[in-house]
Amino acid sequence: MEATFVTQEQKRGRNQLAAIVVLGHAIKHIYNSGLQSILLPEIKLGLALSATQFGTLAFSRQLMGWTTTVAAGYLGDRFANRAPLMLGISMTLMGIAYFVAGSAPDYWTMLGAMLLVGIGPSMYHPPAIGALSRRFPDKRGFAISLHGTGGSIGEVLGPLIAASALTILMWRHVLQVSMFPAILAGFLLWSMMRSVPGEVPGTASTGAYFRSIAALLKKGPLVVLVLITALRSMGQSAIVVFLPVYLREDLEFSAGKVAMYLAMAQFVGIFAQPAMGHFSDRFGRKVVIVPALMVMSILFFALTFADPGVQLVLTILGLGAFLYSLHTIFIAAAMDIAGGEVQSTVVSLIYGASFLGTMSPVLAGLIADNYGTNIVFSYGGAVTMVAALALSRLKLPKTATQMADGGG
């Protein structure tokens, strides 16, 4: 196989594009992590929800997120030159949805609000990562990991900002006020993306798009990788949804202390993501993903038994290196299999794999209600280990860097 050739048109403005996409991703995750880590546990307390009801809120958000991601994958490939508009709309819709959630008076209204909350953020990834993949075919893992690093920065800041806001506002007011910076961010992101040079072609027609999709789905390794991603998503979503609840309710941490614990974990991810992306480019995706999945599974199990002190801190810090870093490498692996075909849709397939795991928070809620929140962590660890063992049997193609170094 030959090394990947990068045209001058692809290189033109690609660093500027990467910087803007990373910035937008950081802003998106400030909102996501503030809601997931700090505000949702407060909503659970404020509305007196059971763990099962709480898991159902996560289910509704993820279900709508999957639906939106699939649609955004189509739009991101069919109209690749409209990525600035799509990213601006993503931010704006996110702000409006948060305002609606802040106005929800009871569980059933909040359930509907969570459907809206799932739309805006899920529009971001397919066009953003698709654009990066098209411009950085020679450094795909690293570029997508940089995008993930922006997310990790947002994951650090989000809990701290939300917890600080709760010292002066009720959770409802925090959600309502957050609409205004989101709309401003949407306008700025749209404006900056429009200034990026370089032509970005879309697929020629809707028919051509669906023919490309059909060709993708004939690639057995890609289908298997999507299914393995779904398993990883099942395990991880249970942890992401219920770890903040465990800290807030079972261990009776303050919102500020929860924010510090989770922000520390994501701080590790800021450095882990580009490092793991680089190593996956250099040595292969599977060499990085399989051991990392196994370690993450062990850390999930460790959460079940960790004492609320040094053991818990070290376990959560360790998880920070893997929770979001692995997702970006799964995306890069899928794009390696797909080659140059419909990159935004490949992203939506990987993110959309979470659809198969949307019921996981509900199942985790049932486990928490009947056996205790800490048992949820063992469930997450078991599912993640199955994903690691399945991936160890899958053959993945060499990366562009490996081929350039003479490994093909």
Order of SSEs: HHHHHHHHHHHHHHHHHHHH
Write down the domain tally: 1
Provide mean pLDDT, rounded. Answer: 84
Overall radius of gyration:
20 Å
Q: Assign the structural class, choosing from mainly alpha, mainly beta, alpha/beta, alpha+beta, or little secondary structure.
A: mainly alpha
The helix content is over 70%
Number of alpha- plus pi-helical segments: 20
Low-confidence stretches: none
SSE topology:
Elements (H helix, E strand, L loop, with lengths): L7 H4 L2 H33 L4 H28 L4 H20 L4 H11 L1 H4 L2 H11 L4 H26 L5 H7 L1 H16 L11 H12 L2 H31 L4 H29 L1 H21 L4 H11 L4 H14 L4 H10 L7 H12 L1 H19 L8 H5 L4
Describe the structure concisely.
With 408 residues, this protein is mainly α. It contains 20 helices and no strands.
Keywords:
Growth Hormone, Chain: A, single chain, mainly alpha, 408 residues
Describe this structure in words.
This protein is mostly helical and about 400 residues long. The chain has one domain (about 10-395): Growth Hormone, Chain: A (Up-down Bundle), CATH 1.20.1250.20. The protein is about 80% helix and about 0% strand. The protein has 20 helices and no strands. The chain has helices spanning about 10, 15-45, 50-80, 85-100, 105-115, 120, 125-135, 140-165, 170-175, 180-195, 205-215, 220-250, 255-285, 285-305, 310-320, 325-340, 345-350, 360-370, 375-390, 400-405. Helix 13 (about 255-285) runs antiparallel to helix 14 (about 285-305) and helix 14 runs antiparallel to helix 19. The radius of gyration is 20 Å and the shape is globular. The termini are close together.
